[in-house]
Amino acid sequence: MTGVLYLIPCPVSDETAISEVLPAANKDIADSLDYFIVENVRSARRFLSKTGISRPIDSLEFRELNEHTTSPAEIESLIAPLLAGRSAGVISEAGVPAVADPGSAVVELCHKRGIKVVPLVGPSSIILAVMASGQNGQSFAFNGYLPVKEPDRTRAIKRFEARALSENQSQVFIEAPYRNVKLFETILRSCHASTRITVATDLTSPSQFTVTRTAGEWGKVPMPDFAKRPTIFIIGK
Amino acid sequence: MTGVLYLIPCPVSDETAISEVLPAANKDIADSLDYFIVENVRSARRFLSKTGISRPIDSLEFRELNEHTTSPAEIESLIAPLLAGRSAGVISEAGVPAVADPGSAVVELCHKRGIKVVPLVGPSSIILAVMASGQNGQSFAFNGYLPVKEPDRTRAIKRFEARALSENQSQVFIEAPYRNVKLFETILRSCHASTRITVATDLTSPSQFTVTRTAGEWGKVPMPDFAKRPTIFIIGK
């Protein structure tokens, strides 16, 4: 029997208690495991200790999977314990593993090797933002990060807007928080006045806000207070 | 002061305990409310009673928002209590409100009227399927239901495949469970042998499975056992 790969979400905000964003049952799964494939060992240890698992953290085995893990042989070695019957948990730095982070490489290999994959429930800023946006939730696309340099950046925004308008598909994307203000200025400059723009900041934390206005309306009110705060952007019809 | 609109997820499977898929804190929010905007009153009452809220269910006010709620005046009347300072919870039939269900109309109006919207964490089959698929989670699109009739149906599948291949964007869609088998046959007939197809069935329930294979590999193994079971499909590169 091979082991099971559990995808274990963690909070997206440091100001949130575990019980606010994670089902109680996730702890029992984490507690049944002694092998973890993680984006960052330090934050995974901190998360597991906050979760209150009963095993001593030092008795657990951690292996890192992140942007430095690129060779197929390394990823193959990460799942060797699963082939030998040991189950594992995948934990990313924030939110749900394998969405907008490197975890999917190990999941992909598990499917090739016939290893069962079980995703657990937790906070995804993407889905929370779509829920709270009032934009179309019957059709939406997550596009990851925008290109950093111009003219690619403005071009990407215009392409998202064109697809949002022609297909009525909400276009979701993210940015490094310190670039939020500049990005938002570029969005307002690039989009039609009637295009709806959502800003969803600090999701799940007490300071959270999600606001949707047309680009024209945003131009008439003060800039949202989101400098250096984690934010999801959505362009919609 | 206006009230707050809380988006309250519920389980996606009848076989799942509340504590397996919902954070404990969601109950406290539900318990603070006496007004609910719901897709179906009967299932919302059942969910709230399963959640163990302390108020008698019969003391709560329920208003329905579903495919029959189409007039702007009706939606306006749903949020009148919020404008008067009363908070409300939105509950859909399964999973997270306002994604792949009618809830977003009321959220949209709340943004227009300056009412705060707060999304709570819960199970989204879409995000769980993307996590567990091993397909690209840096870029993915949810497309809702496919057209039912041919040739539109095959055309939609080929369009999803073309976008999955050219943009490396995973294409997620759903179908009424009794049509899963026929849909899967059409997918295998329509896609290239090397295109990866994910089937994610009964997510969050003990019987769940998520399997990704190329269309060519799927053709050589028995059909997955998903007849009449809730399933998410993903086409990817």
Please tell me about this protein's structure.
The structure is a homodimer of 237-residue chains. Chain A is α/β, with parallel strands linked by helices and 237 residues long. Helices cover 35% and strands 21% of the residues of chain A. Chain A is built from nine helices and ten strands. In chain A, strands 3-2-4-1-5 form a five-stranded parallel β-sheet, with helices on one face. A five-stranded mixed β-sheet of chain A has the order 6-7-10-8-9. In chain A, β6, α7 and β7 (170-174) form a beta-alpha-beta unit. In chain A, α4 (72-83) crosses α5. The longest helix of chain A is centred in the C-terminal third of the chain and has 16 residues, at 152-167. Chain A starts with a strand and ends with a strand.
Would you kindly provide a brief summary of this structure?
The structure is a homodimer of 237-residue chains. By secondary structure, chain A is an alpha/beta fold.
